[in-house]
């Protein structure tokens, strides 16, 4: 278990991490998400005592990192895959780490095997590709067979097979009851890997929730409609209190409705539908909403339908980018 309490880091006037408090529990993969520059790496560095907090604390199984005897046996981390000594072989890099943590040398061969680097174990790591470097970093994290594992953007540089492998590895490690904490700015990746989510933006906690609840609470569900009798359909929708949104190509989107309700409405009005489908916004959209604040989807719309007051609301041209400061605006 990792516990953060009021963790804060300032670099001069820049607050990189802002009063973060959360727990990372065993037995699940916890995703640590945020846009570039949100403060993920800084938080992880403080968890590992590589940076001093300005204020607040991090506890690993109730202790400060520096109080841990042979920390690699408690917590393994992949932070910067390039941190290895390039002039040493993969095997020797790991052997040095093992020796300084009283880990038997036999474990080096085991973890090299686990990450698929046995064939290049004696090669100098400076010649490694990005993906091989990631695998070597993961091997070093696994060396002490720790109960807690932290990975900062572990799929960086991995090919599709490697990405699949690391995903399954993290899930398998969590299933063994370990605490797995993995950062990413890739929402799609987290959706496939994480059971629990911690989302930060501008160093602040935005969400601490199960993946299922996050999607449920943050993604928008709506119905998509297309009809050759678009004008009549708009009239019928407005007459029944719906606010259709223009989605391009003659398609309309309606929030707060079911396909059953809108199908019946079309039938009652004798309207032909070419499309009637329930939609749920992707996780990516959920993140956009969360980090950009409640995008005022309806409030900033543009009336594109005409002067009869029965306009459709156009969606915003483009959502704010990750890291914008408009949360809650
Ligand atoms: N040593 C430092 N000195 C000054 N500013 C720093 C330092 N380290 C990080 N920062 C700033 O703190 C903020 C958080 O950076 P951090 O690297 O933790 O974010 P991140 O979420 O890991 O981003 P990314 O996904 O791009 O790696 C950024 O604005 C960054 O520029």
From TrEMBL:
Pfam families: ABC_tran. The keyword Nucleotide-binding applies. Keywords: ATP-binding, Nucleotide-binding, Transport. SMART domains: AAA. InterPro entries: AAA+_ATPase, ABC_transporter-like_ATP-bd, P-loop_NTPase. PROSITE patterns: ABC_TRANSPORTER_2. GO terms for molecular function: ATP binding. Residues 306-329 are annotated as: Disordered. Gene3D superfamilies: P-loop containing nucleotide triphosphate hydrolases. Residues 2-227 form the ABC transporter domain. It comes from the Bacteria. Belongs to the ABC transporter superfamily. This is ABC transporter ATP-binding protein.
């Amino acid at each position: 278990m990792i516990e953060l309490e009021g963790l804060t880091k300032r670099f001069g006037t820049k607050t990189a991490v802002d009063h973060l408090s959360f727990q990372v529990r065993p037995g699940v993969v916890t995703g640590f998400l945020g846009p570039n520059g949100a403060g993920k790496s800084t938080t992880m560095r403080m968890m590992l005592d590589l940076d001093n907090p300005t204020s607040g604390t991090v506890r690993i199984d109730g202790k400060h990192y520096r109080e841990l005897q042979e920390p690699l046996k408690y917590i393994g981390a992949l932070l910067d895959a390039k941190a290895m000594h390039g002039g040493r072989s993969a095997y020797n890099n790991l052997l040095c780490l093992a020796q300084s943590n009283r880990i038997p040398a036999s474990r080096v061969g085991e973890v090299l095997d686990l990450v698929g680097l046995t064939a290049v174990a004696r090669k100098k790591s400076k010649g490694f590709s990005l993906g091989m470097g990631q695998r070597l970093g993961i091997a070093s994290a696994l060396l002490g067979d720790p109960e807690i594992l932290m990975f900062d953007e572990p799929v960086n540089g991995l090919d599709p097979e490697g990405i699949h492998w690391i995903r399954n590895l993290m899930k398998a490690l969590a299933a063994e009851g370990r605490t797995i904490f993995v950062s990413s700015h890739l929402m799609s990746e987290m959706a496939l890997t994480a059971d629990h989510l911690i989302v930060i933006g501008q160093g602040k906690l935005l969400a601490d929730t199960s993946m299922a609840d996050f999607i449920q609470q943050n993604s928008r569900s709506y119905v998509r409609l297309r009809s050759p009798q678009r004008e009549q359909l708009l009239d019928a929708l407005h007459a029944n209190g719906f606010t259709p949104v223009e989605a391009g190509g003659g398609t309309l989107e309606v929030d707060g409705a079911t396909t059953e309700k809108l199908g019946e409405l079309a039938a009652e009005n004798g309207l032909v539908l070419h499309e009637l489908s329930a939609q749920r916004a992707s996780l990516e959209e959920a993140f956009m909403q969360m980090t950009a604040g409640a995008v005022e989807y309806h409030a900033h719309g543009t009336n594109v339908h005409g002067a009869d007051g029965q306009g459709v609301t156009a969606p915003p041209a483009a959502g704010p980018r990750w890291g914008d400061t408009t949360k809650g605006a």
